[in-house]
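USER: For my understanding, would you kindly supply a protein sequence with its structure tokens?

ASSISTANT:
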Amino acid sequence: MKNINKYLQEVDEYIKNKNYNDAFSLCNSILSINSNNIEAIFKAGYCCYRLKKYDISMMHFIRASSLEKFNTNKAIYKYYIGRCYDSLGVYKEALEYFKNAYDLDNSNKYYTLWLGITYSKTAVNDNDYNNSLMYLSMSLGSEDYLVYGYIGYCHIQLRNYDKAIMHLEKSVLLKDNDYLTRYYLGNTYFLLQAYDKALEHLSESVKLKDDDFDNWFTLGLLYEVIGENILSDECFEKARNIALNNDDIEEELDCFIKLTDSQSDEYLNYLYLGICYAKLESYKNAIHYLLISIELNDSESNYLAYYWIGYINYIDSEYEDALKYFEKSISLNNYEYNHLILLWMGDCYFRLGNYKRALFNLKRSIDLKDDEAETYKIIAELYLKTEKKDKYHNYITKYKKLIKNNEDNSRRLSNANNYLYEMDNALNDDSNDSYENNISENKMDIKNIYNNALGIYNENIVDDEGYYNSKKIEITYFINLLFQDIENSDLYNLYSFNTEKKSYIDFNNFNIDNFLSYRKIINNSVKNNFDNTHFNKIIKNIVSDFDIQYGIIDIRDKKDTLKMINNIEEIFDYTSACILNSMYSCYQKHDIELYLILMELMVNNL
């Protein structure tokens, strides 16, 4: 016990010096001695919170809460769980935990502060904002710049602009470098037509945070109102560039809706709005705004709009129209060919039965990019159609080889905006049977490779690293192939549409702790579903010289046995890592239940 207390003091020193990694490691050491030490569990959770590992942090706080007897301490754990949810943008769950903390201890002003803040973030009506104001007013004396700032924000939503300004000004006096307070203060002065004050605070907000769309957009609106059109255009341009770098397509869409409403004569706004709708598969809206961008900009720079209209027609199986727009895009782009356009044009001609022009464009695509697997696949289908079996086998072999050698095929598909993936699903009925047969054949090949990798027991292979490395490459190929069209699975769609996803596991912030945790689950699932007859066969053959009478295994055989077991374990582990890497590359936000469902899909294919 003395050692644990000493360690806990060291943890406090680490935390005091903001050395959260070492503090967390020491907490784990303490928990290896006493797994129920609440103080170590809490501090481990706190360290993870500071390290922004929120899912792991919540696990520790939940564990501490389940062991804790005193309500005041339980309230602290509930509060930090709420803060984790808040940091992840999951405000509904955050609000529930802040309520729980407040119910357990209503004397702590931080609980009322964050109750008030979260009510303001989740508010849908005036009653919610008034609830927020009630809790915020109870919080004065905690972090008052936040209290006044959020009170001001609530009054803006309630249209009490004078009260909003009064409280926001108090917040600025306490902390003058908070860009959000400056933004709301400038925005409120703008609404009240106090343009000098609005410009003062919005300019300061931009200085404090120059990568925020709303900052630049609102400043652009202000300059437009006061007649500074050049400055207004500059601000809108910066806002547009920030919107283009937004990873969230729906947020990007909202930005361009605002820009088109404010800059109705700027073709770029309509162009990017159309592209956003295209990416969201709202093709009717996409074409509408792309055509407006073309009308506003009668120049060669319209090639991008034609490019996207061509793509939309291609997706809609309007192949003749697609070709027309692709040709127009290329002509406006000074005949600079893009390998993807040539690939799509080739596929269009293929589907229209013009095999000569299809082959011409597909081979031009290969000239520009000779490692694009999809091009070889379509050429193979073309030769199969024209009954040129030798050429078919030549190109389908190249296709398989490219897929096999590409360990990150899903990321490459994503970088091509998932066009090739959609093209896979758009093969016409005539070629569908041969395509499915090829995929089935590939999966059977890999199944045999996988079983051979685990079933071989020749002692000459035990120490052959090259053999096992080759098997790893083949397993990677199998996993990539399996997950190429995973979204077509009935099981996946059943989950996606009927189950609420847990967005707090965000693989944009994928970290090693998540990876190891999930890999362990998947690794166990692989082992549990694997036919152990292979393993038993290995052991039986390696120890065939086992001396039954004396119960002794020859030293060499024992060494080989252990080596083979290690190789098997390594391949199990590698398979699990492949599954995770493939899913990580393809999907941004999925929770652990979905992993288990995808695991079931993999087992069904093995």
